[in-house]
Design a protein that fits this description.
By secondary structure, this protein is an all-alpha fold. The protein has one domain. The chain is 83% helix and 0% strand. The chain has 21 helices and no strands. α6 packs antiparallel against α7 and α9 packs parallel to α17. Its main location: membrane. It is found in: Cell membrane. Keywords: Cell membrane, Membrane, Transmembrane, Transmembrane helix.
Amino acid sequence: MGLIKKQSSQTTLIAYAGIIIGFVGSALIRPKFLDESEIGLLQLVLNTTALFSSIFTLGTNLTTLKMVPAFVNQPSKKKSFISFSVILGIIGLIVSIPIFFGLKQFIFKPEDGGLPNFDYSTHFFWAILLVIGFRIFQNILDAYLRTIHQPLPGVFAESIIQKFFPIIGLLLYYYEYINFQELIYFNLFIFGIPILVSAYKLYQSKAFELRKPGPFTSEEKKTIAGISMSGVLEILSGGLILYIDSYMIQWLLGEASVGIYTTLFFFGLVISVPAKSVRRISIITLSEAISKGDFSTINTIYKKSSQTLLVIGGLLFLGIWCNRYSVEAYLGDSYAQEISIILFIGLAQLVDCITSVNYQIIAVSKHYYYNLFIGFMTLALLVLSNYILIPIMGVTGAALASLISMSLINVLRFWFLKSKYQLSPFSSSSLKTLAIIFGVLAVVDFIPNLNNLYLNLLFKGLLVLIIYLPAIYFTKCSPDVNQIIQKNLNRLR
């Protein structure tokens, strides 16, 4: 847990720097510079590159994370495994081309008019495909870097590069140096930078060899094929779970609704930042522990990460939801009408925090295929619930569907790990933390808002900190959080 704590602290700092930059760009600047339809189209483009690149990596992420640690005593196989991943990445990119062109009309619906004055030309679609390629190989390089305990390049690329440069693009657009079409291209080609950073760091590490991979035994080939196939299907379901809400809103309501949904969705997504950092770091340690049969280490990571993530996630949830009045006042009426999106997405992320690294444990175990079963079951529920709720509740229905699906997927993972391995993330601290979260929410919500949105933001934010942190500290809900608080208190003395 020591390495995880150290690297998690580093990645969390970078991630939070990224979330601040991203918040300024996506929540403060973008809604003021672009209208809802423009935000909707931009987000659909970015979501499409993310979805296609994750699927057409062809499971190499999971294969790398599971197999490379297993080759710890076979350095030749370990170093050359990246060649196998690159070959699969090339195949995946080639396969993605006809599939993307076959689906582009369905995704963007230009035949219905699309965004006025936007050129849905062949160049536009080839630019998207080029960036899908960038992201495929960035995924491959990042996975390999994580196997040698170097997660920071990927975190830096995702949290800083991909958050900061879009702000530059927005400023260029606002001051009319570029038009909206060029802004889309600007956002796309930002993804060329991370792959250069990762390639350079991997080259520096000297931890790979670009040569014929293997040779693998028959058993290893069977394992690699099984993990790759399972990984493709799992990422297919997982990717659709992440992005199907945006696509269904586009199909049922239009691009403007996508813009409103994705802007408010971002506020709830802030809660997931510490969880992403912990999961990115922990999966290699979990994989190594699984290979040794060290379930004591796995259970420790499972419980401690759950305690810490729930405490931090609870603070973020309170800080955001207790300030919803300020969010409504800043963004305007079209967003204020759908403010419940933040509540439902925030609660969904809290559920994900308390169940911590359940997906990662299953992914590196011999029962990795169970994630596939859960994923498709959840996807089916998500599509059905979106189809029912969006026509009734509008974009808020999509957020409620996400909460229902997130709860189901984590209940199923919890049940599986409890029944198969007797692992559980819960303790009395979980109940104490939940009680504190909802107790603080009730108290802060009872206190009237101030008329000035900025003063109210400061006032409600300070109230949350003053009540929540002492309650968490004195009830000892998380040893790791208490250690951080105590360390900072000692500095003040």
